[in-house]
Amino acid sequence: MTSRRLEGAVAVVTGAGNGLGRASARRLSEEGASVVVVDINGDTAEQVSAGLAGPSIAVHADISTEDGVQSYVDAALAEFGRIDLHHLNAGIFGGFDALPDLSVDDFEKVMGVNVRGQFLGLRAAFRQYRDQGSTGAIVVTASIASLTGSADLLPYVTSKHAVVGLIHGAAMYGGPLGIRVNGVAPGIVPTDLFAAAASTSGGKNDMEQRASTTPLRRAGTAEEIAAVAAFLLSDDASYVTGQIVSADGGATIVNTVRPSGGAGAWNTDRVDQALYGDQWNTQRGIPQSSTPQGSTPQSTHEKGTAR
Ligand SMILES: NC(=O)c1ccc[n+]([C@@H]2O[C@H](COP(=O)([O-])OP(=O)(O)OC[C@H]3O[C@@H](n4cnc5c(N)ncnc54)[C@H](O)[C@@H]3O)[C@@H](O)[C@H]2O)c1
Description:
It is a single chain. About 40% of the residues lie in helices and about 10% in strands. By secondary structure, the chain is α/β, with parallel strands linked by helices. The protein folds into two domains: about 10-255, Rossmann fold (3-Layer(aba) Sandwich); about 255-305, no CATH class. Helix 1 (about 20-30) crosses helix 7, helix 3 packs parallel to helix 4 (about 105-130) and helix 4 packs parallel to helix 5. The longest helix is centred in the middle third of the chain and has 29 residues, at about 105-130. The radius of gyration is 21 Å and the shape is globular. Nicotinamide-adenine-dinucleotide binds near residues 19, 21, 39 and 113.
C-alpha cells in the first residue's frame, strides 16, 4: 500500500499525459498530492487528470516556451493557490542521425524541450517558492544518457548531460533556502518516447531486448521510476539534494567490455550459466548442470574465471 506522505502538497508534473510522467502523476496523487497534469497533448493530459484519485487539473502547455510554463503556474495557482513539488519530466529523444548529418534545427529542437524547458521549469519553481516564502522539492527526469554516451543520439545525450548541470546548479542555489533539487535517471522503460522510431534498432522495437543485458536482466516500468521520483519529492529524502539517482536495472555500473557485462551478447544465458551454474539453472527451472543449447563454455573467460 502506498503511503500518504505527500498529503496536502500541490505537485506539478510535466509530460504527464503519457509514460513516466503519467505514472508519476498517479503515484503523487495516490500519496495525497493535488496534481497539475501538464502536457503538450491536451487530450492525454485531460484523460490522466480525470483518472487520478485526488484533486487534479489538466493543463495543455508546451514547456519549452516561457508562455507555456507561465500558463501551468497560473493554472496551478488559480486552482490550488500554491505549488510545493515539481516533477519536470517532459522530454523528447530527437532522432538517430549520424553526427555529420545532424541539422541545427533537430539539435535545437531537442535542446529546446530537454534543456530550455527544464531551465524554464526550474526558474518558475524557484520564483514561486520565493513568492510563497516557502521551501520545496524538485525532481528533474534525467537519463542514463545523462551519464553515458551513445553514437546515435547526440542531441539527446547532450541535452541530458546538460540536465545534470541544471540540477547541480539549482541544488547549490536552493540548498540554503531549503529547496531540494534532484534527478531521476531511468535506463530503459518501454514507453512511447521512441515510438517515432518504432521499427529502428535502438528505437522502440528492441527496448526489452537491450534491457535484458542489464544486471537485473529486464526493462524497468514507469511505476518503478515514479516511485523514485516520489521518494525524492518526499520528506523521506529530506537530506538528499543535487543527486542523480539511477533507476536503470544497474545498467550504468556495467563493465561493458567483460562477458559478464553482456558484452556483445544479446542472449545472456550463456554468460549467466557459466557464472552462476546450478543456482542460475534452479531459478529458471532448468535441470541441474545442463547448459543452454549450443552454448557449451569454450574458454576460461566463458567459464566465468575472469570478470
Ligand atoms: N522511457 C525511457 O526509457 C526513458 C529513459 C531515460 C529517460 N527518459 C526520460 O523520461 C522523460 C519522459 O519520457 P517517457 O519515456 O515517458 O516518454 P513519452 O513520450 O511516453 O512521454 C513524454 C510526454 O511528454 C510530453 N511532451 C513532449 N514534449 C513536450 C513539451 N514540449 N511540453 C509538454 N509536454 C511535452 C509528450 O506529449 C508525452 O506525453 C523524458 O524526459 C525522457 O527523456 C525516458
